[in-house]
Specification:
Layout lengths: L1 H20 L3 E4 L2 E7 L11 E6 L15 E3 L2 E8 L1 H8 L4 H10 L1 E4 L7 E7 L2 H19 L6 E6 L3 H18 L17 E7 L4 H23 L4 E10 L9 E8 L5 H16 L12 E6 L30 H6 L4 E7 L1 E6 L11 E6 L2
Antiparallel strand pairs: 1-2, 2-3, 4-5, 5-7, 6-7, 8-9, 8-14, 10-11, 10-13, 11-12, 14-15
Amino acid sequence: MAHLAEMACAIIRKRSAMDVLRPTLIRIGGRIYRKTLVQEQAYQHEEEEDFCAVGPGDSADEPCDAFVVEETEKGFQCRVEVPSTLCKYIIGKKGETKKRLETETRTSISIPRPGVEGEIVITGQQRSGVISARTRIDVLLESFRKKQPFTHFLSLALNQPVIQEKFLQFREEVLEKCSKDHGVSSSLFQNPAKLHLTLGTLVLLNEQEIQKACDLLQRCKEDFVHQIAGGKPLTVEVAGVEYMNDDPAMTDVLYAKVRMKDGSDRLQVIADKLVERFVASGLMLKEWDRVKLHATVMNTLFRKDPSAEEQSSTVTGKSSFKERESFNGRNILKLFENFYFGEVQLDSVRLSQRFSSDASGYYATSGQLTFS
Protein backbone atom coordinates (compact mmCIF):
# COMPACT_ATOMS: atom_id res chain seq x y z
CA MET A 1 0.00 0.00 0.00
CA ALA A 2 2.82 2.37 0.90
CA HIS A 3 4.40 1.59 -2.47
CA LEU A 4 1.15 2.39 -4.31
CA ALA A 5 0.73 5.67 -2.42
CA GLU A 6 4.30 6.62 -3.28
CA MET A 7 3.64 5.88 -6.97
CA ALA A 8 0.44 7.98 -6.90
CA CYS A 9 2.32 10.94 -5.40
CA ALA A 10 4.99 10.59 -8.06
CA ILE A 11 2.37 10.70 -10.80
CA ILE A 12 0.77 13.81 -9.30
CA ARG A 13 4.17 15.50 -9.04
CA LYS A 14 4.91 14.56 -12.63
CA ARG A 15 1.58 15.96 -13.88
CA SER A 16 2.15 19.18 -11.94
CA ALA A 17 5.56 19.49 -13.47
CA MET A 18 4.11 18.90 -16.94
CA ASP A 19 1.51 21.65 -16.31
CA VAL A 20 4.38 24.04 -15.64
CA LEU A 21 6.58 22.79 -18.47
CA ARG A 22 3.74 22.67 -21.00
CA PRO A 23 1.37 25.56 -20.19
CA THR A 24 -1.43 26.65 -22.52
CA LEU A 25 -0.12 28.67 -25.47
CA ILE A 26 -2.17 31.23 -27.38
CA ARG A 27 -1.38 33.20 -30.54
CA ILE A 28 -2.18 36.93 -30.87
CA GLY A 29 -0.97 39.20 -33.65
CA GLY A 30 1.61 36.71 -34.91
CA ARG A 31 3.16 36.21 -31.45
CA ILE A 32 2.82 33.27 -29.07
CA TYR A 33 2.08 33.75 -25.36
CA ARG A 34 2.27 31.40 -22.40
CA LYS A 35 -0.87 31.56 -20.22
CA THR A 36 -0.56 31.34 -16.43
CA LEU A 37 -3.54 31.37 -14.08
CA VAL A 38 -3.21 33.79 -11.17
CA GLN A 39 -4.53 32.42 -7.91
CA GLU A 40 -6.39 35.44 -6.63
CA GLN A 41 -9.95 36.69 -6.58
CA ALA A 42 -10.71 38.43 -9.87
CA TYR A 43 -13.10 41.10 -11.06
CA GLN A 44 -16.75 40.08 -10.74
CA HIS A 45 -15.74 36.56 -9.70
CA GLU A 46 -14.14 35.84 -13.05
CA GLU A 47 -10.83 34.03 -13.12
CA GLU A 48 -8.11 36.57 -13.76
CA GLU A 49 -5.48 35.57 -16.23
CA ASP A 50 -1.88 36.61 -16.58
CA PHE A 51 0.37 36.02 -19.55
CA CYS A 52 3.99 36.25 -20.46
CA ALA A 53 5.38 36.12 -23.96
CA VAL A 54 7.39 33.20 -25.23
CA GLY A 55 9.57 33.14 -28.28
CA PRO A 56 13.14 34.11 -29.12
CA GLY A 57 14.82 34.81 -25.82
CA ASP A 58 11.60 33.92 -23.97
CA SER A 59 11.08 37.60 -23.15
CA ALA A 60 8.00 39.81 -23.09
CA ASP A 61 10.18 42.91 -23.24
CA GLU A 62 11.64 42.53 -26.72
CA PRO A 63 10.56 45.11 -29.34
CA CYS A 64 7.30 44.31 -31.11
CA ASP A 65 6.20 45.69 -34.48
CA ALA A 66 2.52 45.08 -33.71
CA PHE A 67 2.16 48.47 -32.01
CA VAL A 68 3.83 51.86 -31.83
CA VAL A 69 5.86 53.02 -28.83
CA GLU A 70 6.56 56.74 -28.88
CA GLU A 71 9.51 58.39 -27.19
CA THR A 72 8.57 61.37 -25.01
CA GLU A 73 10.42 63.89 -22.84
CA LYS A 74 9.80 61.72 -19.79
CA GLY A 75 10.36 58.31 -21.34
CA PHE A 76 8.10 56.22 -23.56
CA GLN A 77 4.39 56.00 -24.30
CA CYS A 78 1.99 53.62 -26.02
CA ARG A 79 -1.73 54.02 -26.79
CA VAL A 80 -4.30 51.29 -27.33
CA GLU A 81 -7.93 51.66 -28.42
CA VAL A 82 -10.14 49.70 -26.02
CA PRO A 83 -13.96 49.46 -26.02
CA SER A 84 -15.28 50.92 -22.76
CA THR A 85 -17.00 47.63 -21.87
CA LEU A 86 -13.60 45.89 -21.65
CA CYS A 87 -11.80 48.52 -19.57
CA LYS A 88 -13.14 47.04 -16.32
CA TYR A 89 -11.10 43.89 -16.93
CA ILE A 90 -7.88 45.91 -17.10
CA ILE A 91 -8.84 47.75 -13.91
CA GLY A 92 -9.83 44.59 -12.03
CA LYS A 93 -11.60 44.32 -8.70
CA LYS A 94 -10.72 47.37 -6.57
CA GLY A 95 -8.12 48.29 -9.18
CA GLU A 96 -5.96 45.25 -8.38
CA THR A 97 -5.20 44.22 -11.95
CA LYS A 98 -4.15 47.72 -13.00
CA LYS A 99 -1.96 48.13 -9.90
CA ARG A 100 -0.27 44.79 -10.47
CA LEU A 101 0.43 45.59 -14.14
CA GLU A 102 1.88 48.97 -13.20
CA THR A 103 4.04 47.51 -10.42
CA GLU A 104 5.41 44.59 -12.42
CA THR A 105 6.15 46.63 -15.56
CA ARG A 106 7.12 49.88 -13.79
CA THR A 107 4.67 51.88 -15.87
CA SER A 108 1.70 54.17 -15.36
CA ILE A 109 -1.58 53.14 -17.04
CA SER A 110 -4.29 55.73 -17.74
CA ILE A 111 -7.76 54.28 -18.41
CA PRO A 112 -10.85 56.22 -19.61
CA ARG A 113 -13.72 56.74 -17.17
CA PRO A 114 -16.48 54.07 -17.18
CA GLY A 115 -18.75 54.44 -20.21
CA VAL A 116 -16.34 56.75 -22.04
CA GLU A 117 -14.80 55.51 -25.30
CA GLY A 118 -11.13 56.33 -25.63
CA GLU A 119 -7.59 55.04 -25.39
CA ILE A 120 -5.63 53.35 -22.65
CA VAL A 121 -2.32 55.21 -22.37
CA ILE A 122 0.76 53.43 -21.03
CA THR A 123 3.75 55.53 -19.98
CA GLY A 124 7.08 54.56 -18.47
CA GLN A 125 10.76 55.43 -18.29
CA GLN A 126 11.81 52.16 -19.91
CA ARG A 127 10.71 51.14 -23.40
CA SER A 128 10.78 47.47 -22.39
CA GLY A 129 8.37 48.14 -19.51
CA VAL A 130 5.88 49.90 -21.78
CA ILE A 131 6.07 47.03 -24.30
CA SER A 132 5.58 44.47 -21.53
CA ALA A 133 2.53 46.31 -20.17
CA ARG A 134 1.01 46.68 -23.63
CA THR A 135 1.58 43.00 -24.40
CA ARG A 136 -0.12 41.91 -21.17
CA ILE A 137 -3.05 44.25 -21.76
CA ASP A 138 -3.50 42.92 -25.32
CA VAL A 139 -3.61 39.34 -24.07
CA LEU A 140 -6.05 40.17 -21.26
CA LEU A 141 -8.32 41.99 -23.72
CA GLU A 142 -8.22 39.08 -26.15
CA SER A 143 -9.08 36.63 -23.38
CA PHE A 144 -12.04 38.59 -22.02
CA ARG A 145 -13.32 39.50 -25.49
CA LYS A 146 -13.79 35.80 -26.15
CA LYS A 147 -16.11 35.65 -23.13
CA GLN A 148 -18.47 38.33 -24.46
CA PRO A 149 -21.72 37.23 -26.13
CA PHE A 150 -21.75 38.02 -29.83
CA THR A 151 -23.38 41.28 -30.90
CA HIS A 152 -23.52 40.97 -34.70
CA PHE A 153 -23.40 38.32 -37.39
CA LEU A 154 -22.88 38.10 -41.14
CA SER A 155 -26.14 36.95 -42.70
CA LEU A 156 -27.90 36.30 -45.98
CA ALA A 157 -31.61 37.13 -45.74
CA LEU A 158 -34.06 34.39 -46.75
CA ASN A 159 -37.22 36.21 -45.70
CA GLN A 160 -38.53 36.93 -49.20
CA PRO A 161 -42.33 36.48 -49.51
CA VAL A 162 -42.15 33.22 -51.49
CA ILE A 163 -39.91 31.60 -48.83
CA GLN A 164 -42.01 32.92 -45.96
CA GLU A 165 -45.18 31.53 -47.52
CA LYS A 166 -43.69 28.07 -48.00
CA PHE A 167 -42.20 28.15 -44.50
CA LEU A 168 -45.64 28.88 -43.00
CA GLN A 169 -47.00 25.93 -44.99
CA PHE A 170 -44.20 23.76 -43.61
CA ARG A 171 -44.99 24.84 -40.05
CA GLU A 172 -48.70 24.19 -40.50
CA GLU A 173 -48.15 20.71 -41.94
CA VAL A 174 -45.59 19.73 -39.30
CA LEU A 175 -47.95 20.73 -36.49
CA GLU A 176 -50.82 18.91 -38.21
CA LYS A 177 -48.93 15.66 -38.77
CA CYS A 178 -46.32 15.58 -35.99
CA SER A 179 -47.69 17.55 -33.03
CA LYS A 180 -48.08 14.33 -31.02
CA ASP A 181 -44.36 13.58 -31.30
CA HIS A 182 -42.40 14.29 -28.14
CA GLY A 183 -41.46 17.94 -27.73
CA VAL A 184 -42.95 19.22 -30.98
CA SER A 185 -44.84 22.51 -30.55
CA SER A 186 -45.42 25.82 -32.33
CA SER A 187 -42.87 27.53 -30.06
CA LEU A 188 -39.99 25.76 -31.85
CA PHE A 189 -40.37 27.52 -35.19
CA GLN A 190 -38.29 30.40 -36.49
CA ASN A 191 -39.92 33.79 -37.02
CA PRO A 192 -40.55 33.74 -40.81
CA ALA A 193 -39.48 37.40 -41.12
CA LYS A 194 -36.04 36.41 -39.78
CA LEU A 195 -35.23 33.39 -41.92
CA HIS A 196 -31.56 33.64 -42.84
CA LEU A 197 -28.18 32.01 -43.38
CA THR A 198 -25.54 32.76 -40.75
CA LEU A 199 -21.96 32.92 -42.02
CA GLY A 200 -20.29 33.84 -38.74
CA THR A 201 -20.70 35.78 -35.50
CA LEU A 202 -18.82 38.86 -34.28
CA VAL A 203 -18.27 40.72 -31.03
CA LEU A 204 -18.35 44.43 -31.93
CA LEU A 205 -18.29 46.56 -28.80
CA ASN A 206 -18.36 50.13 -30.11
CA GLU A 207 -19.03 52.19 -33.24
CA GLN A 208 -15.38 52.05 -34.29
CA GLU A 209 -15.43 48.26 -34.42
CA ILE A 210 -18.72 48.24 -36.32
CA GLN A 211 -17.24 50.62 -38.88
CA LYS A 212 -14.16 48.42 -39.16
CA ALA A 213 -16.39 45.45 -40.01
CA CYS A 214 -18.33 47.50 -42.58
CA ASP A 215 -15.10 48.66 -44.23
CA LEU A 216 -13.83 45.08 -44.39
CA LEU A 217 -17.03 43.98 -46.12
CA GLN A 218 -16.48 46.54 -48.85
CA ARG A 219 -12.86 45.49 -49.33
CA CYS A 220 -14.01 41.88 -49.67
CA LYS A 221 -16.41 42.93 -52.42
CA GLU A 222 -13.61 44.62 -54.32
CA ASP A 223 -11.08 41.84 -53.74
CA PHE A 224 -13.10 38.73 -54.63
CA VAL A 225 -16.89 38.82 -54.19
CA HIS A 226 -17.63 40.89 -57.31
CA GLN A 227 -15.57 38.54 -59.46
CA ILE A 228 -17.13 35.35 -58.05
CA ALA A 229 -20.72 36.63 -58.15
CA GLY A 230 -20.26 38.19 -61.56
CA GLY A 231 -21.91 41.41 -60.41
CA LYS A 232 -25.30 39.69 -60.18
CA PRO A 233 -27.50 38.23 -57.41
CA LEU A 234 -27.02 34.53 -56.70
CA THR A 235 -30.00 32.26 -57.39
CA VAL A 236 -30.37 29.61 -54.70
CA GLU A 237 -32.89 26.91 -53.84
CA VAL A 238 -34.00 26.17 -50.30
CA ALA A 239 -35.05 22.54 -50.17
CA GLY A 240 -35.01 19.62 -47.76
CA VAL A 241 -34.48 19.50 -44.01
CA GLU A 242 -31.70 18.08 -41.87
CA TYR A 243 -30.84 17.97 -38.16
CA MET A 244 -27.73 19.06 -36.25
CA ASN A 245 -27.10 16.38 -33.64
CA ASP A 246 -26.51 12.62 -33.79
CA ASP A 247 -29.91 11.34 -32.67
CA PRO A 248 -33.01 12.48 -34.63
CA ALA A 249 -35.17 11.38 -31.69
CA MET A 250 -33.47 14.09 -29.61
CA THR A 251 -33.25 17.01 -32.04
CA ASP A 252 -32.39 20.56 -30.97
CA VAL A 253 -31.96 22.27 -34.34
CA LEU A 254 -33.68 21.46 -37.62
CA TYR A 255 -32.54 23.40 -40.66
CA ALA A 256 -33.39 23.83 -44.32
CA LYS A 257 -30.64 23.07 -46.82
CA VAL A 258 -29.49 25.73 -49.27
CA ARG A 259 -27.83 25.16 -52.65
CA MET A 260 -26.97 27.12 -55.77
CA LYS A 261 -29.54 26.51 -58.49
CA ASP A 262 -26.82 26.20 -61.14
CA GLY A 263 -25.08 23.50 -59.11
CA SER A 264 -21.95 25.59 -58.61
CA ASP A 265 -20.15 26.21 -55.32
CA ARG A 266 -19.98 30.00 -55.73
CA LEU A 267 -21.99 30.75 -52.58
CA GLN A 268 -19.84 28.35 -50.55
CA VAL A 269 -16.64 29.93 -51.89
CA ILE A 270 -17.85 33.45 -51.05
CA ALA A 271 -18.93 32.38 -47.56
CA ASP A 272 -15.63 30.65 -46.81
CA LYS A 273 -13.51 33.53 -48.13
CA LEU A 274 -15.52 36.11 -46.16
CA VAL A 275 -15.07 34.19 -42.91
CA GLU A 276 -11.37 33.68 -43.66
CA ARG A 277 -10.90 37.45 -44.07
CA PHE A 278 -12.86 38.31 -40.92
CA VAL A 279 -10.94 35.74 -38.88
CA ALA A 280 -7.63 37.11 -40.18
CA SER A 281 -8.70 40.64 -39.19
CA GLY A 282 -9.40 39.53 -35.61
CA LEU A 283 -13.09 40.43 -35.86
CA MET A 284 -14.26 36.80 -35.90
CA LEU A 285 -13.16 33.56 -34.27
CA LYS A 286 -12.46 30.54 -36.43
CA GLU A 287 -14.85 27.70 -35.66
CA TRP A 288 -15.00 25.43 -38.70
CA ASP A 289 -12.90 24.78 -41.79
CA ARG A 290 -15.94 25.50 -43.98
CA VAL A 291 -19.14 27.48 -43.44
CA LYS A 292 -22.20 25.25 -43.13
CA LEU A 293 -24.85 26.81 -45.36
CA HIS A 294 -28.12 26.26 -43.54
CA ALA A 295 -31.29 28.10 -42.54
CA THR A 296 -32.66 27.23 -39.11
CA VAL A 297 -36.39 26.48 -39.22
CA MET A 298 -36.84 24.87 -35.79
CA ASN A 299 -34.73 25.42 -32.68
CA THR A 300 -35.31 24.43 -29.06
CA LEU A 301 -33.78 27.76 -27.99
CA PHE A 302 -37.01 29.39 -29.21
CA ARG A 303 -39.07 27.62 -26.52
CA LYS A 304 -37.94 30.02 -23.82
CA ASP A 305 -36.80 32.94 -25.97
CA PRO A 306 -38.48 33.56 -29.35
CA SER A 307 -35.91 36.29 -30.07
CA ALA A 308 -32.94 33.94 -29.63
CA GLU A 309 -30.51 33.47 -32.47
CA GLU A 310 -28.13 30.67 -33.25
CA GLN A 311 -25.12 31.09 -31.06
CA SER A 312 -21.49 30.51 -31.70
CA SER A 313 -20.17 27.44 -29.93
CA THR A 314 -17.08 29.41 -28.90
CA VAL A 315 -19.01 32.19 -27.20
CA THR A 316 -19.87 32.00 -23.54
CA GLY A 317 -23.37 32.85 -22.49
CA LYS A 318 -24.95 30.37 -24.88
CA SER A 319 -27.77 28.19 -23.63
CA SER A 320 -26.45 24.82 -22.65
CA PHE A 321 -27.80 21.92 -24.67
CA LYS A 322 -28.42 20.24 -21.31
CA GLU A 323 -30.94 22.96 -20.50
CA ARG A 324 -32.87 22.45 -23.73
CA GLU A 325 -35.91 20.27 -24.15
CA SER A 326 -35.19 18.29 -27.30
CA PHE A 327 -37.89 17.09 -29.66
CA ASN A 328 -38.39 13.87 -31.61
CA GLY A 329 -37.70 14.81 -35.22
CA ARG A 330 -37.90 11.35 -36.78
CA ASN A 331 -41.31 11.81 -38.40
CA ILE A 332 -40.56 15.36 -39.51
CA LEU A 333 -37.38 14.17 -41.23
CA LYS A 334 -39.23 11.30 -42.87
CA LEU A 335 -42.25 13.27 -44.06
CA PHE A 336 -40.49 16.52 -45.02
CA GLU A 337 -37.08 15.24 -46.13
CA ASN A 338 -37.45 16.91 -49.53
CA PHE A 339 -39.80 19.79 -48.67
CA TYR A 340 -39.32 22.62 -51.17
CA PHE A 341 -39.19 26.06 -49.59
CA GLY A 342 -38.59 27.86 -52.86
CA GLU A 343 -36.11 29.69 -55.04
CA VAL A 344 -34.68 33.07 -54.09
CA GLN A 345 -32.25 35.71 -55.32
CA LEU A 346 -29.53 36.53 -52.81
CA ASP A 347 -28.31 40.07 -53.44
CA SER A 348 -26.25 40.95 -50.36
CA VAL A 349 -24.37 39.87 -47.26
CA ARG A 350 -25.48 41.90 -44.25
CA LEU A 351 -23.81 42.82 -41.01
CA SER A 352 -26.85 42.10 -38.85
CA GLN A 353 -27.39 43.30 -35.31
CA ARG A 354 -28.44 40.75 -32.75
CA PHE A 355 -31.76 41.21 -30.88
CA SER A 356 -33.05 43.80 -33.35
CA SER A 357 -35.65 44.29 -36.08
CA ASP A 358 -36.05 46.63 -39.03
CA ALA A 359 -39.28 47.73 -40.74
CA SER A 360 -39.59 44.39 -42.56
CA GLY A 361 -39.16 42.38 -39.36
CA TYR A 362 -35.64 41.26 -40.34
CA TYR A 363 -32.58 42.10 -38.24
CA ALA A 364 -31.38 45.70 -38.30
CA THR A 365 -28.48 46.11 -40.73
CA SER A 366 -25.28 47.88 -39.65
CA GLY A 367 -23.68 47.50 -43.07
CA GLN A 368 -23.83 45.31 -46.16
CA LEU A 369 -21.99 44.00 -49.18
CA THR A 370 -24.08 43.90 -52.38
CA PHE A 371 -23.43 41.36 -55.13
CA SER A 372 -24.59 43.63 -57.95
